[in-house]
Hints:
By secondary structure, chain B is an alpha+beta fold. Chain B has 2 helices and 4 strands, in the order βαββαβ.
Amino acid sequence: MTGITHTTALWYASRATGVVTMLLLTVVVLLGILVNRQGRLPGLPGFAVTGLHRNVSLLAVAFLAIHVITAIADPFVTIGLAAAVFPFTAGYKPFWLGLGAISLDLIAALIVTSLLRARMSRRAWRAIHWLGYAAWPLAVVHSLGSSADARSGVVLGALSGCVLATAAALAWRLSQAAREVPRAGRAAAVLSRLPARKAGL
Amino acid sequence: MGKQLRVDPVACAGHGACAELLPELVTLDEWGYAIVADQPVPRGLVREARRAVAGCPALALALRRVA
Amino acid sequence: MTGSLTVPNPPVTAAPPGRGGDLPRLLPASGAAPVGLRQHLDAYGALPTARSPGRLLREVAAAGLTGRGGAGFPTARKLAAAAEARPAPLVVGNGAEGEPASSKDSSLLWISPHLVLDGLQLAAEVIGSPAAVLYVRRNQRLHAGLAGAIAERAAAGIGAARVDLVQAPDRFLAGEESAVVSRLTGRPALPAYRPVRGLPRLAPGRAALVQNVETLAHLALIARYGAAWFRNAGTAAEPGTMLVTLRLADGRTSVAEVPLGTGIAGLLGLEPAAGHLAGASVPSAAGPVQAVLAGGYHGAWLPAAEAAHLLMAGAALRPLGASAGAGVLAALPADRCGLAETARVARYLALESAGQCGPCFNGLPRIAAALEHLAGPRPDHRARADLKRWAGQVTGRGACHHPDGSVRFIRSALRVFAGEAGLHEQGRCCGTDPRPFLPVPAARPASDADWS
């Protein structure tokens, strides 16, 4: 199928929304790291970071939905509805689309558990939320493999930007975590920073 | 039967989003951790309280039913 | 093992239990050697099983037994709640004894393990649990002794429940109820946030019944001799006996079993003269005493003259901010600086924070440092005001009662040693002996592994 230009609007829409979804997912991951590190966005109140993380993720899901629906609706390639959620069952490029399906499944789990946050244990929610770190690279690889567009020009540039930004943010997050005082040493750390004076006579 | 806002002190990491969203009931101590007023949430603030609970990145806030 | 394991000399009576109000009940009449299974069976008879659990519950309720771990909760109520829970909660005997000034639980476990194990079996029977856990302070010799006692009983076919021996980490908070449960689920012994009161949860749908080991020992005797016998000692409102860890003014420590409501003066050997000046030291056989610490490091200081007229009972001590608690009584000699002693303990308490709750691990170290300032010469005026502010910011804002108890202890020091504080402001100090008096473990860096 490569090398043939598809002129159907649906096919273009699918690829375009795919790129936008990838960009939005990257922003979601970056914001998520910022929330975790209690960072602030300049000029915005503290709760804006959490709010943006949540809202951008919902926006990403919206674009993801259009991306999937247009791909399914396109008559030129045989991608059924099932292929969107069951990996490696698509008629067209099953492997690369399969990775996308896995990513979609993981994202769905993240979204559903976050909506039902109040009803589950914090530990369970956090464990599932960690899967975001798997969903994102799967989406990147899916992007690179599913369409020749992603491997050249503007789209490749955008994808590279996403990867670089996420890699940098992750490196920063890991370095912060490494320097964090372990729980058992927190009181001692506070005490050591205070001016001390020997008690007694 | 009213609602009471409670903070889980183990989960609270001092993000401070709650104090921004619900300053009527939540203040921060000098180290940034949430101090929640020990009174039932007034009817008109229940919606804001729910937003504050949802807005806590550490899931430290909860709205509990009290007799 | 901290503290000596002697009972007071001379013992109260040598008559065996069962003869109304005779002491000692939990410990043998003399000596500190462990009571073996044979000796135990000779003294107390066989473990009374096959009685209906309901009957034992009623007996415990009639006896008015309360928890001997410090909180003093009515044991019958706790047992009844556990008996109703499905599935049956896990029974845990709590002998962690994280309080450095207390050694009564370790002494009891060393000398009378079979009484504790009997109580554990009885509690398991009442609530229908097939397994029990004995959670004990880290000590090689004690652990070996208990393992031996458990094996001996299993071989003799005593008790239906399986007993597992678990070591507690060497931390002040290791014995906190939710910390115990946390440790038993394989996680570190950290206190948990419990928004709903009730039996602590081991897992979703499974609770735990945590009882102090001394409470279990009393249970074992109530099952044999009944509620009326138990009430022969103590007061009507606070019946029975309790184990106390005594630290006299000369530093000698001992564990004794006393009826509740016993006068503190007698226990510490205080000899208040008639017409005694309030605020002055009280002479004792072991030296002059300026203040008494009642209830351990989450308890409170009392001026010696006041303590000399008080009874070892909640009714007498609670209005003064102290408690009988887990039975720790320490007599501070007149030649020590009460503020310096308190500052040392406060530093220890701060470092024993679990590090989970912001107010605790931020507030307690600052409070300890401020106290160190006040215990030094010519302290900054701000130290006292800061201390007051931090104390208010910290109380009630932790997952457990560590900040509350520590603040109670420190506030009582500021009250009782106010005169000392005044002297310090002038650059003077009453204390002539700089040696530490209260037992405080040496500070060592804590890692997360230390809580496992």
